Amino acid sequence: MQNILNTVYFDSQFPSNYIHSMFEKISETLGYFHGNRFSQYNETRVISAFQPIYSIAHRRIVGLEGLARGLDKSGNMVPPLTLFEQQSPKNVCELDRICQLVHIENFHALNSPNAWLFLNVNPQTLSDSDYYAEFLSYILNEKNYPANRIVIEILESVIDDEKELEQHIKRYKEMGFLIAIDDFGAGQSNFERIWRIKPDIVKLDRSMIKKAGTDPSVKGLIKGITSMLHHSKCIVLAEGIETENEALVAMEAGVDLVQGFYFARPFLLSEPINSKYGLWRSLYNVFDDLSAQTSEAQHEIITPYIKKFSAQT
After folding, report:
1. What's the pLDDT score for residue 8?
2. Which pLDDT does position 152 carry in this prediction?
3. Are 49 and 261 in contact (CB under 8 A)?
């Protein structure tokens, strides 16, 4: 895996009065709920849940994806999709900025010095990249965080304007942020776009891993895709892994990072990370056995041809 966790601080001009006022306005809505930092947005408390992202090679957490959760007045959970669908386009950008501030506040409280924070960017907010990037930089300055601690997740399939997508990504990269392309393998995803925008991380679409769990031909396809992404100098992340079989598929394909319920469910700051005891030891034992069986099977298939060739020579 590439060594891009070095401490490199972004070079950003002092934010405008508008950015400062925006930060002060949102900061006034912050509070604590059961040990979690939240922001009061209308009648909803916006809080953070984090899903761990693991390195297969290092067998440890190397990132946390910030996931927005809403709590209504009765304390009932409001799914993020519902939370954002209720907003006007203008309010979506405001809510997105609120989520990023809350995620960074809670991530800072976790004090994970060797982990990235993955932040999803709403497509409408992405179009407002100048304000968003400056706002995000302002928060990081407040926390004394380097920009490369943050991974901006972009769902490429929702971008129709290729030049606009490249401009936004170039803007984030210039400020020091890392870029992840989400759901690769679905919709409009293609390698030509990967070669042009050069993301740091590519997240494989969950449907590919799920399909490969039941279709051997798709296993080879994912292995080939992973190899091509590696040649493009991208770190490859398999998300949505829910079973041991799917985890083994990801390992066989040679992906670098994994994420999903099989490894750990999203957790709040007030909750422990609920990962399985001895998970990696057990998984690698199964993987080693599977690799040995695969090698033996391939040997049995090729042996008759080797003998035939030897006899002819």
Report:
1. 40
2. 93
3. no
Is 156 within 8 Å of 189 (Cβ atoms)? Answer: yes
List the Cα angle 245/247/253 in 5-degree steps: 105
**Beta strand ranges found along the chain (DSSP E):** 30-33, 36-41, 44-55, 60-71, 77-78, 116-120, 150-155, 178-184, 201-204, 235-238, 257-258
Q: How far apart are CA 264 and CA 224, in angstroms?
A: 27
* Close Cβ partners of 305 (under 8 Å, ≥ 6 residues apart): none
Q: Is residue 270 within 8 Å of residue 34, measured between CB atoms?
A: yes
23-37, 122-136, 253-267, 285-299: range with highest mean pLDDT: 253-267
Residue type, 76: N
Cα gap 92→122, rounded to integer Å: 8
Higher-pLDDT residue of 42 and 234 is 234
277 forms bridges with which residues in the sheet?
A: none
pLDDT of residue 12: 45
Distance CA 12, CA 303 (A): 62
pLDDT of residue 289: 61
